[in-house]
Structure prediction request, 636 residues.
Amino acid sequence: MSNKQLEPLHIVIDFDSTFTKVEGLDELANIALQGNPKQKEIVSKIREITEKGMSGSYSFADSLRDRVALLSANRGHVDQLIAFLKGKISDSFNRNKEFIQEHAEQILIVSSGFKDFIVPVVQELGIPAENVFANTFNYDAEGNITGYDHDNLLSKDRGKVSLLQSLQLEGEVYVIGDGYTDYELREAGLANKFFAFTENVSRKVVVEKADHVVPSLDEFLYINGLSRAQSYPKSRIKVLLLENVHPHAVQAFKKEGFQVELLKGALDEAELIEKIKDVSILGLRSKTNLTKKVLEHPNAARLMCVGAFCIGTNQIDLAECENRGIAVFNAPYSNTRSVVELSIGLMVMLTRNIFEKSTRMHAGVWDKSATNSYEIRGKKLGLVGYGNIGTQISVIAEALGMEVYFYDTVDKLALGNAKKCSSLKELLNLADFVSLHVDGRKVNTNIIGKQEFSWMKDNVIFLNLSRGHVVEIPALVEAIKSGKVWGAAVDVFPYEPKTNDEEFINELRGLPNVILTPHIGGSTEEAQANIGEFVPAKLLQFMNNGSTYGSVNFPELQLPPLENAHRLLHIHQNVPGILAQINNVFAKYHVNIIGQYLKTTEKTGYVITDVAKEYSEEIVNELKLIDNTIKFRMLY
Ligand SMILES: NC(=O)c1ccc[n+]([C@@H]2O[C@H](COP(=O)([O-])OP(=O)(O)OC[C@H]3O[C@@H](n4cnc5c(N)ncnc54)[C@H](O)[C@@H]3O)[C@@H](O)[C@H]2O)c1
Ligand SMILES: O=C(O)CC[C@@H](O)C(=O)O
Prediction:
């Protein structure tokens, strides 16, 4: 990436809420007032004054005077603040440390905050103390802050303007900041451009005045053609997260600078077509269907990868995603344990008829009796589907003294003393408990219907925590009403409400000894937090270095980190000769290949090439023009 000549350029950067994520004085008050019963009140007063000053609705000099008067801080507090602020440097500044260090001489920190804490923090990224222009505190002999230097230009109204006038900088001056006082430099004709920095805070009055709004330092560097950590600023890449995925996921993407939108509920097809416009990364759970119709809509043209924040991926048209070069990832075992625990608990609740007893107790009925209450110990558990969940239930159920049998369409290793059945009928014939744990492929629709219920023992206990369409609901209702099924627990349904505001309508409502749960088998704090970390990590690996390890629809490649090279990712239809064509392009332009990786599925090929040379547009264009190319992208 060519680096624009910086020689005649000065970059003036604000400190509070720009270089760091927070306002230094607010945080100093927070530290100094620890243990003070009025801490909250005073800190919020200081915050209020800061905000008024920053948005230009209060004289700066008055705001500084009022805030320092409320502080009650000393040198020790300033030291604590420095340590705190070092951990609060804005993510995009940390990411671009190399640029900052390299051009430190041309970067000026101009702040109405205090050198006392600003200097040690900006020095972390290599900016020298003499390039920091800010106020200074006065201290008494005990080290208490007694005030500040009122002669300092930066303590006065329009202080930044006066300071810059006095500096008489030569060449272009670009100002990056989040406050109105930063914009004033442009207004006064002292800066050629003002960049409103919105990574930490966005103020309407400031944004409206800006030449450019930059959600990160990467964006500033990109706009100005300067060297940077991200080849294409992530603030330009949209991430859409649906169905209230865990906040960890939002943080993971925000930390890297992506533009993230989180929606609470699921979306139907039409809504998704609308919202997917310009989205590159999509996160969803079990209730949003990513269909062919959505994928082929021009709005979905930028989609690069999809994260299912759950185990099941039946809601996603995986084949169509593959055709379009979109890699799909899921969390294959982050909520397994939660489903297992609930299944075991439900079996106990059902055999003791606990829910009915509890409901009657709430109505004042004391019915102490052992009639129709049983232990699960010694009973036969029949597991349909012996995958991650089925096998874990098998182990725990056996530890509780159950006899475990299973049926799986694939030949599976029996754990412990579990016994394999050779047909579904054999399993259903012998089990006292039947629990379904098959995956949600279409072919599994209605695998349990009238006939299968007829094969079950009388008074069977039946559980479905897998997928709703796997069971024919009218047949289950019939089996419950006829007494064939003595108790049932159902967590998943052929149709599930999109949000918590929609009514749950199903024929199973109101039946005796039937526990209904709103698809919460995997909904524990632990599982959701795990998923919220696991899935973004996969998506970020794909975005940042091209790895597809763990993808459910894509050639899987685990790639080494990219060091001092460009990485070119070529996704194509799996037809003969593509690799040769790619390499012919490199040979034609005398580009030396440092590393090359290829993986294919029946339909798709994925070639990753690491090259040392500066890339040229011609190479990129020729690679894109190779017949049968689906997608092409470049990483540093
Ligand atoms: N209720 C919830 O909140 C919740 C949470 C997590 C997972 N799930 C669902 O639980 C199910 C199981 O999850 P998992 O992680 O164990 O999946 P898995 O893929 O590890 O296991 C599924 C097993 O079912 C077997 N199978 C598929 N079709 C079958 C059939 N017709 N008959 C017998 N065996 C069959 C497969 O061979 C596989 O061994 C999935 O449908 C998943 O979506 C539900
Ligand atoms: O959380 C969800 O929406 C789905 C949970 C579960 O069914 C899964 O597939 O992991």
